[in-house]
Design brief:
single chain; 6-stranded mixed beta sheet; 4 helices; globular
Length: about 140
């Protein structure tokens, strides 16, 4: 069985997130993968292991948005060089507090043996703090 090239692995992962295909998203990670999320937000840290990344990190992100609303993730760019893939995407939605969330994100993915082994994500953490972690107005 041929494994996907690193660029295709990352594209499949982002597409899975965008379409809500959580089994494919989870299967994209190595068991011991890491995800580094920047800043000093409640989510900021290095998440270690597929379960922590998928269930704890990505799972908790969903709770930050208004019930019944979807986070719109759009892949806007991919650059690959060997096992390193840089992906750029936009993330838009309505936060649980009613604020409009609209962020540009960038991730540097490392892919080995057809699986994501590490991600370093970069985004406007001030916008995330102001929209996702601020109490509802009123």
């Amino acid at each position: 069985m041929n494994q996907l090239a690193p660029r295709a692995v990352v594209e499949r992962y982002v597409t899975a997130i965008a379409t809500g295909d959580l089994p494919t998203a989870a299967a994209s990670f190595a068991e011991d993968a890491t995800w580094s999320y920047p800043g000093d937000l409640p989510l900021s840290r290095v998440w270690r292991g597929r379960t922590a990344i998928v269930e704890d990190f990505l799972g908790s992100v969903g709770t930050l948005f208004a019930p019944g609303s979807a986070l719109d993730v759009t892949l806007t760019g991919l650059l690959a060089d060997g096992p390193q893939v840089v992906a750029e995407w936009t993330a838009r939605g309505t936060a649980a507090n009613g604020a409009a969330y609209d962020n540009q994100c960038l991730g540097i993915f490392t892919v080995e043996n057809g699986l994501i082994t590490a991600v370093r994500e970069y985004l406007d953490t001030e916008h995330a703090a102001r929209t996702l972690f601020a109490p509802a107005a009123g």
